[in-house]
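ARCHIVE CARD
Drawer: 12
Card no.: 0347
Subject: one protein chain, sequence and derived structure
Cross-reference: see card 0346
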Amino acid sequence: MSGAGSGAKGKQKPVVIVQARMGSSRLPGKVLADLCGQPVLGWLLDRVRRSVEAQGAMVATTTAPEDDPVEELAANLGVACFRGHPTDVLARFAGASKQAKADSIARISGDSPLIDAQTVDAVIEDFRRGGADLVENHREVGWPMGTAVEVMSRGCLERLDRETADPVHREHVTLYAYENGSGVRTRHVPPPEALRAPELRLCVDTAGDLERVRGICARFAPRRDFSVAEIVASGVAAA
């Protein structure tokens, strides 16, 4: 089976699409939880919009009324928002990429407020080398949790949307791409040594995660542009 798309050959920079919704089994409403005076999603968007390798950011949320505040936050921050199927996340991403008219996209989860532009740029730069339809930094142990990025061609995303009907694949956008026989060319980006901290949780999935991330933000206050490398160097991983 041939590759899924043109890889890095597109001329446009990728659009960062952030997956965010209010529903969560372990921490409902986490994407709008207060994080030192700004919502979790607000932190994330502010940090990834500093990327020099991406052309902008977009939020992909659902059509459920409970996600109206997500769209409102995006609008207040001047960020485009696409609203799609509540559970078919793959269809939601395919629709968002079509609305963005992007040759390629960078996919990020909305519960990763401390991911930084440098990490996004590192994965995009690797994607631009060509030879892969999808480049990621999370399939092997190394990077801190909460710094996952996937960069893929729009053709790859559309092919995933077209080829798989499995509900698990539809919920977990790129899972099908990593399975044997998919024909999708993937590549992993390992972390530089300064960012190797697999034990460090920078995601917000539980109440404990939220308190930990609040502590990190308070440590660097009033700055909001601190890098993941600075977090790792601060020794918070051992705290």
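Annotation on reverse: The domain at 7-238 is CATH 3.90.550.10 (Spore Coat Polysaccharide Biosynthesis Protein SpsA; Chain A). The first strand starts at residue 15 and ends at 19.
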